[in-house]
Design goal:
By secondary structure, this protein is α/β, with parallel strands linked by helices. Helix 3 links the parallel strand 5 and strand 6. The radius of gyration is 31 Å and the shape is elongated.
Length: 728
């Protein structure tokens, strides 16, 4: 397989600055997708250097190449099996924790990859008293080593240039690193390697000695593939590995994976102590306490940590809502203006209604929240790039573990709407960072309980009507209810349908750093663009379908004749002088309202909403509410617009105070009990259509899509009935 010298991979541990480097190299020239058949994100981008276009492959962040997670499996597949494979690898290393980060480098060398060491965060390492002799490291490893500060753009071109030159020089292949792993392991490797070579077992992509080592490490993926290719030899290799494991257990009370890891670290340590690291041992004890450690002594403290976290989340919630309200109004006004312009130039009829009420109202209602979504993602990007989000996972792990989740589940929850304006679609996608399939599944199924941006308009409407004096507090309380529901359901699932041991929480807390402007902008835009694409595709189609369901079939001609007779009677009264012009207009508007209500109740959506009243009545829902909630299954964004249509908004006198909020406020049906019941139901019931499809994609099982649909509906209905019956 021919390697491509213009195709370079970027590898690195989480929090090494790998993503910052990739964004600096590629800017907006990125393509994001999934690797075929799995849910790990695939990122590629284009960089330009010395007039040459270079394709950069951003490997998933990983600590090793042992198949403990999908990210690790994907990383080594890209390096060895993708066509064409990358010509070289830039290994981005956090210089402040050089020994730990070099562990991945050793495994890349064992795989036979042409490697450039990009020693990132050199400024922070120096500030912490570490003096790294880059030339000495290059001499001892035989690698090109480049000092780098990715967030400032320093050393990026040098590292990329070195990688391209290395790819051209080596053709994408170098002799794999062979180090000693001790007498017992070395003897096993010596026996197994020739047999693998002779049988050509997976050697088209991987070195034979590396494959032998994978058998000793009991690498499930390699063992499975080897068994499929050559069952007899695979069984023989596994037996040799089990024999070694039994020997090591009886003699050293250890196992092959631990021995191999120890010798890798020993190789690294022997290099670092040979003149590579200087000065660290001479620093006074007080100077060793980095700024990050001082801050963490406060923000990760058992009591203060959660309080600070809730304070930050509440502040983000408040600022996002208050600041986002201004541009949201601008966007909403623009679509109102656009709808008016289109309505003025088109003749009355189904086509005009489709465009103004279906397309513009539907898509415009979603795009109206783009400013709020963008502000929310901006805050999240700042917290992520500063290093605080890692602390959030650390703080919440103890709580999440009690409910059968993992500290890393915090990010999918936050992205789904754990703070104002999230979206469950990227939230479900964010579960890809979770290693345990069971904890990941529990997170996927409960993330939609968060207060996503599409639910917020519903909450804002009813809070402003019934709880206006305490709006921020009530809105924040709704958010906390979403968290509580997610955690309780997680506990239920992990105790019943998704049983399994908890995964240990091991996480490196990166040092705090100032986020870069370009990094924050790129991260914010990537997430916002996903939301915009949803509005222009799926929501557009759903809006048209909902419009059709609320428009057809039309009432019978007899019903239409009845309304015309009422209008004729009003005209006769006007001609007789018994009604003033204002009274005539008001009566005609009442007839228009009645006619529109009849049209709506006669439509498919109206009939369904009326039929469901027997089921939803105990929760305080009438047929208009049912129609809106049915639309909300397709997309939560349409609940408000559907309520407006259901209440014939727009067919009343514009001179009167008749906004949707006023109509609900003046409707005797609506009480505090009805409002609370509806908000509880909206918070908890079925995820939107796009989220349901994302759940199916991420779990690869239709049954979890249907579980989310029907379980959430039942769960929400039960709690709504309880809330309504207690409050009414």
């Amino acid at each position: 397989m021919q390697n491509d010298s213009s195709r370079i991979a970027i590898a690195g541990n989480p929090n090494s600055g790998k993503t910052t480097a990739f964004n600096r190299y590629t800017g907006a020239r990125q393509h994001v997708g999934n690797y075929p058949g799995i849910t790990v994100e695939k990122k590629e981008g284009i960089a330009h250097l010395d007039g040459i276009e270079i394709t950069l492959v951003d490997l998933p962040g990983t600590y090793s190449l042992t198949a403990y997670s999908l990210e690790e499996v994907v990383a080594r597949r890209v390096l060895s099996e993708e066509s064409p494979p990358p010509g070289a690898v830039i290994d981005v290393i956090n210089s402040g924790v050089l020994e730990r980060n070099l562990y991945l480098s050793v495994q890349l060398l064992e795989l036979g990859m042409p490697l450039v060491l990009a020693l990132n965060m050199m400024d922070e390492a120096k500030a912490n008293g570490l003096n790294i002799n880059v030339d000495r490291l290059a001499e001892l490893t035989g690698l090109v080593c480049v000092p780098m500060v990715a967030r400032k753009g320093e050393g990026l071109d040098d590292a990329l240039r070195a990688a391209v030159e290395l790819a051209k020089k080596t053709g994408g292949k170098v002799k794999p690193l062979e180090i000693s792993y001790g007498t017992d392991v070395d003897l096993a490797l010596k026996e197994m390697t020739p047999q693998i070579e002779e049988a050509k077992l997976l050697t088209a992509n991987y070195p034979a000695r590396w494959l032998a080592m994978k058998f000793l490490e009991r690498d499930e993926e390699i063992v499975r593939r080897a068994t499929e290719a050559n069952p007899e030899l695979s069984a023989k290799m596994q037996a040799r590995g089990e024999a070694l494991a039994a020997h090591l257990k009886s003699t050293l009370k250890t196992y092959p994976e631990a021995v191999i890891a120890d010798y890798r670290y020993g190789w690294i340590h022997s290099i670092l102590k040979n003149g590579v690291l200087k000065g660290a041992d001479d620093i006074a004890p007080d100077d060793r306490v980095a700024f990050s450690d001082k801050v963490d002594s406060i923000v990760t403290q058992k009591v203060l940590g959660p309080l600070i976290l809730f304070g930050i989340l509440y502040l983000m919630y408040y600022v996002t809502i208050e600041l986002g309200a201004i541009p949201n109004d601008w966007v909403a006004n623009f679509f109102d203006w656009l709808s008016g312009v289109v309505g003025d130039v088109m003749s009355d009829g189904p086509l005009k209604s489709l465009i103004t009420d279906g397309i513009i109202a539907g898509v415009g209602g979603v795009l109206g929240f783009v400013p709020l979504i963008m502000i929310m993602f901006l805050f999240i990007s700042v917290l992520e790039d500063s290093g605080y989000m890692a602390r959030v996972a650390y703080i919440m792990d103890r709580v999440f573990r009690f409910f059968g989740l993992h500290g890393a589940s915090i990010m999918p929850f936050i992205i789904s709407g754990g703070i104002a304006g999230g979206c469950a679609v990227p939230g479900v996608m964010a579960t890809r960072t979770l290693r345990s399939p069971k904890e990941r599944l529990a997170t996927i199924l409960t993330a939609p309980f968060m207060t996503c941006g599409a639910k917020i308009p519903v909450f804002l409407l009813f809070v402003s009507i019934f709880f206006d004096a305490h709006r921020p507090l009530v809105m924040f309380s709704i958010t906390l209810c979403g968290w509580a529901a997610a955690l309780l359901v997680s506990r239920l699932l992990r105790s019943t349908l998704i049983r399994g041991a908890a995964t240990p929480f091991v996480m490196e807390l990166p040092p705090y750093r100032y986020p870069t402007f370009s990094g924050v902008v790129i991260h914010t835009w990537e997430r916002t663009w996903q939301y915009i694409k949803k509005a222009g595709t799926v929501i557009l189609a759903i809006s048209v379908l909902i419009w059709a369901a609320m428009t057809f079939p039309s009432p019978t001609p007899e019903d239409e004749v009845a309304f015309e007779e009422q209008r004729a009677a009003i005209t006769s009264q006007q001609e007789a002088g018994t009604l003033t012009e204002e009274e005539v207009e008001a009566k005609n508007l009442d007839v228009d309202n009645d006619e529109q209500q009849l049209h709506l109740r006669h439509s498919v959506a109206g009939r369904l909403g009326t039929a469901l009243e027997t089921v939803t009545g105990p929760a305080g829902f009438n047929w208009q509410t049912n129609i809106a909630l049915i639309g909300g299954i397709a997309a939560k964004e349409v609940v408000i617009s559907t309520l407006g249509t259901a209440y014939a908004l727009g067919s009343v006198d514009p001179e009167e105070d008749t906004s949707l909020a006023d109509r609900i406020r003046n409707d005797p049906h609506w009480t505090v009990a009805n409002a609370v019941s509806l908000m509880v139901f909206t918070l908890l019931y079925s995820p939107c259509f796009v989220t349901l499809m994302m759940i199916k994609q991420e779990t690869a099982r239709w049954r979890w899509l249907f579980f989310s649909l029907f379980f959430n509906l039942a769960f929400a209905m039960i709690l709504s009935i309880i809330a309504y019956q207690l409050l009414k």
